[in-house]
Design the sequence.
């Protein structure tokens, strides 16, 4: 029982010290990491721009293909479709 209290107190004190140390060191860490963060953001934004351009090109290619298929279907319809539908013969039961 006493051992767990000592352990709990030690963890509490150690955690508090870590938080205080991090609060003191955070500005220095952020200043040191700033160039890395800036370079990462530049690369990320460049990759995003390339992905958008690739997606736009892909969309354009798909739209072109759809237009080509529609044009082919329009050209093929008059040649293969008769002017009028043949009459449907009904079966008469006698």
Sequence:
């Amino acid at each position: 029982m006493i051992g767990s209290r000592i352990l709990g107190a030690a963890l509490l004190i150690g955690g508090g010290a870590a938080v205080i140390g991090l609060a003191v060191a955070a500005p220095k860490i952020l200043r040191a990491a700033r160039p890395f963060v800036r370079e990462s953001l530049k690369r990320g934004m460049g990759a995003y721009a390339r992905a958008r351009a690739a997606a736009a090109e892909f969309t354009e290619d798909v739209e072109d293909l759809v237009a080509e298929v529609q044009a082919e279907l329009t050209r093929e319809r008059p040649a293969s479709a008769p002017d009028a539908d043949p009459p449907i013969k009904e079966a008469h039961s006698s």
